[in-house]
Amino acid sequence: MRLTVFGTGYLGATHAACMAELGHEVLGVDVDPDKIAALRAGRVPFYEPGLEELLVKHTASGRLRFTTSYEEAAAFGQVHFVCVGTPQRADSGAADLRHVDAVVDGLRAHLGDAPALVVGKSTVPVGTAGRLAERLEGKAELAWNPEFLREGFAVQDTLRPDRLVLGVRSKPAEALLREVYAPVIDAGTPVVTADFPTAELVKTAANAFLATKISFINAMAEVCEATGADVSVLARAIGHDERIGSRFLRAGIGFGGGCLPKDIRAFAARAEELGTGRSLAFLREVDAINLRRRERTVELSRELCDGSLEGKRVAVLGAAFKPDSDDIRDSPALDIACRIHLQGGEVTVFDPEAMDNARKAYPALDYAVSAPDAVRGADLVLHLTEWPQFAALDPAELAAATVRPRIIDGRGFLDGARWAAAGWEFRALGRPAQPRQERP
Length: 440
Ligand code: UDX
Fold this sequence. Notes:
Blueprint: E1 2-6, H1 10-21, E2 25-29, H2 33-40, H3 51-61, E3 64-67, H4 70-76, E4 79-82, H5 98-110, E5 117-120, H6 128-136, E6 141-144, H7 154-159, E7 164-167, H8 171-180, H9 182-186, E8 191-194, H10 196-227, H11 231-239, H12 260-273, H13 281-304, E9 313-317, H14 332-342, E10 346-350, H15 355-361, E11 366-367, H16 371-375, E12 380-383, H17 388-391, H18 395-401, E13 406-409, H19 416-421, E14 425-428
Parallel strand pairs: 1-2, 1-4, 2-3, 4-5, 5-6, 7-8, 9-10, 9-12, 10-11, 12-13, 13-14
This protein binds uridine-5'-diphosphate-xylopyranose.
């Protein structure tokens, strides 16, 4: 089939490459000529494991091309996917739909008489699909097919998703989408068909649930801190109950990134507009718990630095909002780094992939070339993104390079006993202090 994909960010670039992998002829469209030039040259402008290989493979095979021309796209495609961003508005928690609207209007202006299906994948407030369908009336049919991909697993989540949600208003639209995804469906992926509002809500509800799960365990971490209990043991124990499950129960500095924080705010804002604000009032608390964990980390850092961060050298391991990503949007790690910097700390950051993005966004922080380089001469080390290479560091070697070996594990990921045995004062959010052992 001939498909177009509007927007070539995390979602669109991945979707375009994966659709080519499924055997379709794909044209990726973006208004940013630099992005299009990079993609044409086989370069992914962000870090996503496995994506560049697919891009190179399919730009070479000719199945995947890129353009900035809406006219070309409208003439090319039978199915048009809308994959542009819906960021948080500057003046409220609501979603900014400018890009989605611009794609639909731009495409509409160039569509001819051939039948076309426009498929929304962007995360939007419930009610958007209905509104867009009206705008397209007489020109194209609309369907809503939300994405659920996680950064770092985007290719896998697109080619082997947990489920496909097809928000459709007609049998032919459903049949066309089933044809697009035929290899994925044949591989056993469950398909849920729904009306527009349900399809839109599936996405926001899923993200709200995940954010709530993380904030739930972080609220437990707060209670653990007040009682001397250990949240990691608590999480393990409750996670054995299959109804609860152990995934997304890792306490720490909380969630960040381009999706969960903005999506729960937009969802709550939309509920207010719909007159059902009380139903989602708890999401404000989910957000507040999440942000409190960042404050707590700064507070604990200050405590460990004898009451003041002024002039203290603080090594921050991690800048990305999670491992296997170079995305620093709403990164808890960099938020904490900046707050410590504002309190007079001398912060040195290292991240395996997100250095360029971090440097551009926060030029006032210092940056190291490696984790040991960041830790050299530190009064305090903060482990804030759980890259596997940080867990593999040798604590004894690092201890020798610090002024005082003190570490806060903000991700509950390091082996505290091992670090304590190497002479570190080891603290983790929601857990009792590890008794420090003499340096061997
Ligand atoms: C999320 C959803 O998982 C995905 O389905 C949706 O389509 C987009 O938003 P993503 O933003 O890529 O994906 O990240 P995710 O893996 O969900 O992690 C989000 C944040 O939560 C990260 O900052 C992560 O570090 C944090 N997190 C995750 C925790 O603090 N604890 C956990 O137990 C799990």
